[in-house]
Amino acid sequence: MAKAWHYAWAGKSEGPVDELVIRDLIRAGRVKADTLVWSGGMANWERADRHFAFAPQPFAPAAPPPAGPPAMPGAAAFGGTGYPGASYPGAGSYGTAASGAAPARSFPEAIKVCFQNYVTFRGRASRSEYWWFFLFCLLLGFVGGFLEAVMGRDGAALSGLVSLATFLPSLSVTVRRLHDTDRSGWWVGGFYLAFIPVGLLIGLLAAAAQANGSPPDATALGLFGILFLLMMGYSITMLVFMCSRGTPGPNRFG
């Protein structure tokens, strides 16, 4: 499990966040060489440059530390609030960057972040984090299809396991991507929940058509056409949302 860090900001203790987030904060200029940091096992607060690499800077006296080491929460690496602007559990672990916006990710970093936030539906995800993980899942799908063609049932079983393993992180990163554009995750949750009443409605319409003597094929075709149009409209809408730029500062999701 990643090591959890606290850092001093405006006379207060912020965290816990993991090392990757601290490095994001260093690049953003929020955590400086003389910023005081603390982690479990340390006797007291220490300068950040004793634990992280910094470019050489002129010496400046350290700011006074917060009052005593912070109490560590139960969820060591990914619990508590993150840095300012993140008011939800787990936000500090890749939730937002120092300015409030979700940080950009490289391909391997996006895979790591999405699996570490396997079922984290709070916080924000940048476009790069979402699309790199989308590409990763797409490549896994190609590999699964190849294994299924070569190995038959065994390959199909492996492909099914891969799809099952990537379903939840794909769902959670989609919700976090919506949050980054200041939209609710119910754009995804509502879609899945809508299948229940829509399925019941289609069943009732089909039953009514059969009772009235309508051709079943025509009824099925009409219902399929309606469902296809709804799916197309929803897919285009979600594609636009996933490609949209995130809000530049803090929003209601972090």
Question: SSE layout and pairings?
Answer:
Blueprint: E1 5-9, E2 12-17, H1 19-28, E3 36-39, E4 46-47, H2 107-116, H3 127-151, H4 153-180, H5 186-211, H6 216-243
Helix pairs in contact: 2-3, 3-4, 5-6
Please outline what is shown here.
By secondary structure, this protein is of the alpha+beta class. It is 50% helix and 7% strand. The protein has six helices and four strands.
Q: Distance between the terminal alpha carbons, to the nearest Å?
A: 24 Å
Individual helix count: 6
SS content category: alpha+beta
Proportion of β residues? 5-15%
Shape by Cα distribution: elongated
Overall average pLDDT? 79
Low-pLDDT parts are: 72-99
* Estimated radius of gyration: 24 Å
Q: How many extended strands?
A: 4
Strand order within the widest beta sheet:
2-1-3-4
- Helix percent reads 40-55%
Could you characterize the architecture of this molecule?
With 254 residues, the protein is an alpha+beta fold. The chain has six helices and four strands. It has a four-stranded antiparallel beta sheet with strand order 2-1-3-4. Helix 5 (186-211) packs antiparallel against helix 6. The protein is elongated, with a radius of gyration of 24 Å.
